Amino acid sequence: MIRIVLPAHLRALARVKGEVKLDIANAATQSTVLDALEARYPVLRGTIRDHVTKKRRPFVRFFACERDLSHEPPDSPLPDAVATGAEPFMVVGAMAGG
Amino acid sequence: MSSVRVLVGTRKGAFVLTSDGKRENWDIAGPHFAGWEIYHVKGSPLNPNRLYASQTSGWFGQIIQRSDDGGTSWEPVGNKFVYDGIPGTHQWYDGTPHPWEFARVWHLEPSLTDLETVYAGVEDAALFRSTDGGQNWSELSGLRGHSTGSSWTPGAGGMCLHTILLDPKDPQRMFVAISAAGAFRSDDGGTTWRPINRGLKSAQIPDPEAEVGHCVHRLALHPSRPNVLFMQKHWDVMRSDDAGDSWHEISGNLPTDFGFPIDVHAHEPETIYVVPIKSDSEHMPPDGKLRVYRSRTGGNEWEALTKGLPQSNCYVNVLRDAMAVDSLDSCGVYFGTTGGQVYASADAGDSWNPIVRDLPPVLSVEVQTFP
Description:
The complex is a heterodimer. Chain A is built from 3 helices and 5 strands. Chain A has helices at residues 8-14, 30-40, 80-83, and strands at 2-5, 20-22, 60-64, 67-68, 89-93. Chain A has a 5-stranded mixed beta sheet with strand order 2-1-5-3-4, covered by helices on one side. The radius of gyration of chain A is 12 Å and the shape is globular. Chain A starts with a strand and ends in a 5-residue tail after the last strand. Chain B has a single domain, classed as YVTN repeat-like/Quinoprotein amine dehydrogenase (Methylamine Dehydrogenase, Chain H, 7 Propeller), CATH 2.130.10. Helix content of chain B is 1%, strand content 41%. Chain B contains 1 helix and 30 strands. Chain B has one helix at residues 141-144; strands spanning 3-10, 13-20, 27-32, 37-43, 51-57, 61-67, 75-76, 89-91, 97-99, 104-110, 118-123, 126-130, 138-139, 160-166, 174-179, 182-186, 194-195, 216-221, 229-233, 237-240, 248-249, 258-264, 272-277, 292-295, 303-305, 323-325, 333-336, 342-345, 353-356, 362-370. In chain B, strands 3-2-1-30 form a 4-stranded antiparallel beta sheet, with no helix packed on it. A 4-stranded antiparallel beta sheet of chain B has the order 4-5-6-7, with no helix packed on it. In chain B, strand 27 and strand 28 (342-345) form a beta hairpin. The mean pLDDT of chain B is 97. The A-B interface holds A 7-10, 13, 43, 45-48, 51-52, 57, 59-60, 93-94, 96-97 and B 35-36, 57-63, 76, 79-80, 82.
């Protein structure tokens, strides 16, 4: 089971409270986790990554295990602690704006 | 009993303001989509409870919301705006080619004839259409594919398609305006387009009378006479009597002819409204006085409307989509400011009152009339 923490705006959009918990069949990578997240909540398509290129939106970051994974290749395995559900995969709105 | 519903888009959410036909006491609902920029909210003329909202964010991109109960509840619909074919390039600020990139929806225009059809004007400038209530969007790429498209350049606010006018007498005819490309017309339902900028003069571009490149801020028409168009340009207020084939200036005695919105009285096709702004470098009312100017002669002769509007120390702006009129017997006029005020006049502009004073900066105002 993968635990995902979404920022407040995306929780509101997906109408979820707290963490999202997903089971994924394949190895846990950014791509497989986000594919599963978007399949469960289609409204999130296009809000975290581009509809077509699947590239991360510039002001969205991915954190886990106190590391910034934003620049990791999307098909790289996520840390074991994320894959086992011990730690959440965090989708974060970058610090910016007013 | 008659009533009106004012749909307000702001930098931090949408608000729905309602009143009976007296337009004295208002109920204010919102913010909807708190924290998101709401560029535009507009209702269908065929079913006024069908509303669309453009919800956007620098972090999380574009969402389109739809309501079927007049704005009480909303459902996200489709947000996939993909340019048709290979997008190509337009000209960037520095003159270099720049790939077309979708940023946001500036304006939503529900069809006059089909409830499920709605148009979206987007940045980078393009026109999209949905025929299933906003679920799926397709580009009308004949506009962006016009032979001049690769030379279009953004204005300071981005290269946005911000105005969509549908001709109520000819379902094949539509008008759009793009900053800073100019005005365009289609006579075949949006398949092909041609620039309609003859007569415009813009000192800010190398050839002031070029076919494209003009920073048109807003177009307006009266539904009874759709061949007559009014335009607020970057500088100059303009008029066309031949559906945009030619334009002439009607700035007349305005204190400044820079501004953003322009609108037409619901029952008097020769009565038009603008909000003069000091200049392109100072987006604020001249002399700190917020004044709407009205012409009852289709332009050139303008009168200041000041009763109820701040006449000192006022330095707000009124953006291009932030003015609208209702169609009650005594035409109501509404506008919102970057200071968060929404003003209403129930007497065609003779006097004004704030409906609300402290919203986030107002991006758009639309009105629905229930006679």
